[in-house]
Write a structure and sequence with these properties.
Layout: H1 14-23, E1 36-38, H2 53-57, H3 70-83, H4 99-115, H5 128-138, E2 151-154, E3 158-161, E4 182-186, E5 191-197, E6 203-207, E7 212-216, E8 220-223, H6 225-232, E9 237-240, E10 244-248, E11 256-261, E12 265-270, E13 275-283, E14 289-297, E15 301-303, H7 310-319, H8 336-345, H9 355-358, E16 363-367, H10 374-384, E17 390-394, E18 397-405, E19 408-422, E20 425-438, E21 454-459
Parallel strand pairs: 1-20
Antiparallel strand pairs: 2-5, 2-8, 3-4, 5-6, 6-7, 9-12, 9-15, 10-11, 12-13, 13-14, 16-21, 17-18, 17-21, 18-19, 19-20
Helix pairs in contact: 1-4, 4-5
């Protein structure tokens, strides 16, 4: 196979480095810098009752109205994939074959580390030795002009990294909850295209339907197209409807195998017993896919997707209430965009990976500009937002709208922190979980309230072209 000659890396300007930093965001904006304090259990202006889904279902005008049937949801999914170009059809073998495109992507990822200071766990700046080691591992000179089509299935929960290393890298010393090399995380049963291998063959660069990055080779089982289809769009199937669902290897549910997150679909074998029987992917000594059998608790899954109603979406959001925040899927948890993904996956909507793309899905009901005052924003929310079906977007963050109480508007979202004014300065208050808050959160700080930072509002009911 002819190889593409290794190209000299272009010198990156500071501006390009900053742009690349934005593109690397795992889906939510990076937290503010500074000393932080723990947040309260109940955020300001919330009550005990507001922590329950029924409180918000009660405020929906039509909680059991079906927003879209399965056919309409599939139309929405195709719109996300084709019109918005926010996901990839892995079964389209004309895609993901350009070696030049892959080289460009890998070089961009590597260039970020050289564009601005990053730090190791010990607080030392990332040095040239580390960069050269990673560059060698990436094995870029071995990428051909045309990438062969290779399929794989994830056999264990796997962190997806922007570079082939488990070593964390931080934007600030000690910022340990925000590994800048964490791109995403893939659950057991996720179908991928394998595009490249590291020099030591311990890493594979893969593309899932939603994101590309490096995965440990031991977590991937290679397979052919027909085998991949079993996992890509399984029929019949169950979808996980709890925040976490444990998979066991025995029907007595004692031989623990793995945990999957909400919204994961697994091929169904038998759903009528005391435990639900599913297919699970296993990897043999040669690295190939072999079939396995797994068992889950009956309440952890639903046969087929749940109905797409405001009640169901609100209830599924509250399944994740108080779940820890996880940047890019760190610790097996969820950031703001992953939270939205998991909730809507239970009704069959395959949302994009990052919040900016998610904010393009559905019917645009309002756009905001910086000069819009808070009162006018609240008036628009009162007229147009509906609990359980409205997504609220601000730069780097996305939330699910819940409803209005006493002229205050509320949302549920996965958030790390907010700012509040203390002695003419901003104090950073750690939330670090999925939480209910009203949109005045952050009012009086230098960044402003959530309401003041809104950019757009969309409903999931109707498509926008």
């Amino acid at each position: 196979m002819s190889m593409i000659p290794e190209r000299k890396r272009l010198k990156q300007t500071v501006l390009i480095g900053l742009v690349m930093s934005f593109l690397w965001l795992a889906g939510c904006a990076h937290p503010p810098a500074g000393i932080s304090v723990p947040g309260p259990t109940l955020l300001p202006h919330t009550t005990r009752q507001m922590q329950m889904p029924g409180f918000w279902v009660n405020r929906s005008s039509s909680p059991d109205l079906t927003l879209m049937n399965h056919q309409e949801i599939e139309t929405l999914n195709r719109h996300i994939q084709t019109t918005l170009a926010a996901s990839v059809d892995l079964m389209d073998e004309s895609l993901l074959q350009s070696g030049f495109a892959l080289i460009s992507e890998l070089e961009k990822e590597l260039s970020k580390l050289g564009s601005q200071p990053f730090f190791t766990p010990s607080g030392q700046a990332v040095d040239l030795e580390f960069l050269n080691k990673i560059k060698t591992l990436m094995n870029i000179p071995m990428i051909g002009e045309k990438i062969p089509v290779r399929y794989g299935v994830i056999v264990r929960f796997a962190d997806q990294r922007t570079l082939p290393t488990d070593d964390p890298v931080y934007g600030r010393p000690g910022d340990t909850d925000f590994d800048e090399l964490q791109n995403s995380a893939l659950d057991l049963g996720t179908t991928v295209r394998i595009l490249h291998e590291s020099r030591d063959r311990r890493w594979c660069y893969v593309q899932s339907e939603l994101s590309g990055g490096w995965i440990r080779s031991e977590f991937i089982a290679g397979c052919d197209r027909n085998e991949a289809l079993v996992w890509y769009r399984p029929q019949p199937f169950v979808v996980t409807v709890r925040a976490k669902a444990d998979v066991f290897r025995d029907p007595g549910l004692t031989d623990y195998h793995e945990t999957v997150r909400m919204g994961v679909c697994l091929p169904l074998i038998n759903g009528s017993g005391s435990a639900v029987t599913v297919k699970i992917p296993l990897r043999n000594a040669s690295g190939d896919l072999i079939p396995g059998i797994g068992y889950l608790r009956v309440p952890a899954v639903h046969q087929g997707f749940l109905p797409a109603t405001p009640r169901i979406i609100i209830e599924q959001a509250f399944e994740l209430h108080h779940a820890p925040y996880g940047w890019g899927g760190m610790y097996g948890e969820q950031d703001c965009s992953r939270f939205i993904q998991e909730v809507l996956a239970t009704v069959g909507i395959r949302m994009p990976r990052n919040s900016a793309d998610q904010a393009r899905v559905g019917h645009l009901t309002a756009s905001f500009v910086e000069s819009d005052d808070t009162r006018s924003r609240y008036d628009i929310l009162s007229r147009s937002a509906e609990g359980g079906i409205t997504l609220l977007y601000m730069k780097g963050h996305i939330m699910l709208y819940l409803g209005e109480v006493d002229d205050r508007h509320y949302a549920i979202h996965s958030t790390y922190a907010f700012r509040r004014p203390v002695n003419s300065m901003d104090q950073i208050v750690r939330v670090n979980r999925v939480a209910v808050s009203d949109l005045s959160l952050g009012q009086g700080s230098t960044r402003g309230s959530l309401a003041d930072r809104l950019v757009s509002m969309r409903k999931l009911r109707i498509l926008d072209d």
